[in-house]
Amino acid sequence: MQRTAIARSLISDPSILLADEPTGNLDSTRSREVMELLTTFNRERGITIIMVTHESAMAAYASRRIHFVDGMVEKDKENEEEG
Q1: Beta bridge partners of 65
Q2: Are strands 64-69 and 48-52 parallel, antiparallel or unpaired?
Q3: Helices of type H across 1-83
């Protein structure tokens, strides 16, 4: 279902895709598949992906991490773990 939702969101060829816990209900294999899909769209189509996640393994796919505490930016840096 997540892949279908992502496909629907890409129909209009957006420049930005907002993803709120896109792997939240998936097992680790499916989570990696979804993240690889999002990474491919970012690299090949230039789509900016803004993702909210609590999963550090999924955040490792990001090129940049912004960490919020109580609604305020605590950290904003390039991701050294980029996966």
Answers
A1: 77
A2: unpaired
A3: 2-10, 28-45, 56-59
Distance of CA 25 to the CA centre of its chain: 14
pLDDT in tens, 31-73: 999 999 999 999 999 999 999 999 989 999 999 999 999 999 9
* Phi and psi at residue 38, to the nearest 5°: -65, -40
Query: Taking the complete model, does pTM exceed 0.85, yes or no?
Result: no
- The Cα-based distances of 55 to 15, 22, 52, 72 in angstroms read 25, 10, 9, 19
Task: Work out whether the CA dihedral 83, 5, 52, 47 comes out positive or negative.
Answer: positive
Cα angle 16, 52, 1; round to 5 = 80
What is the residue whose two structure tokens read 């690889």? 36
Whether 52 contacts 38, CB under 8 Å: no
H or E element, residue 67: strand 64-69
